[in-house]
Amino acid sequence: MLGQYLPIFALLVLAVLFAAGSFIASGLLAPRRSTQAKTAPYECGIVPGLDNPQRFPVRFFLVAMIFIVFDIEIIFLYPWSMIYRELGTFGLVAIGIFSFLVFESFVYLIANGALDWGPIKKVLISDPRRSSERTANTTVRRVGLEGRGLEQEAA
């Protein structure tokens, strides 16, 4: 009875020996000179700085959602395909509804521009607040200029 666990135990011992050997080898063989470039944080080729990071476009997240949707679809389709004969009509209807919902989410993502990688088209919305007559001089009220000697410049 204990003999059936011998391969698992042997694999566990080999894994521990390999991990320990890797740490020992890297400690003995690795160069010990550290430079400023080696100790600097590195992430995706972006040099760390003090400025705020740029925002990702929504399109990036929509593509990520497409991958998640299709991963979930594959996760559910594989077990269904293994036992579809036992499920009968119920299984066929259930996977049909599921496939429709996956397709619907895909159409939604495409409609929102998930795969439009061309130049961004800016749509000008007719907005009464946006007109050529509105400038900083006509919309911004100058406050606090009295008594500073700046009345002449503001007028």
Describe the structure.
The chain is mostly helical. The chain is built from six helices and no strands. The longest helix is centred in the middle third of the chain and has 28 residues, at about 85-110.
Strand residue content: under 5%
What would the principal axes of the Cα set say about the shape? flat
Number of strands: 0
Radius of gyration, whole Å: 32 Å
First-to-last CA distance: 99 Å
Q: Please, how many helices?
A: 6
The ordered H/E elements are HHHHHH
Major sheet: none
Mean pLDDT: 77
Question: How helix-rich are the residues, as a percent range?
Answer: 55-70%
- Uncertain segments are none
Secondary structural class: mainly alpha
Q: Mind sketching the topology for me?
A:
Blueprint: H1 6-29, H2 36-39, H3 58-82, H4 84-111, H5 136-139, H6 151-154
Helix pairs in contact: 3-4
Please tag this protein with its features.
155 residues; mainly alpha; 6 helices
What is the structure about, briefly put?
The protein has 155 residues and is mainly alpha-helical. It contains 6 helices and no strands.
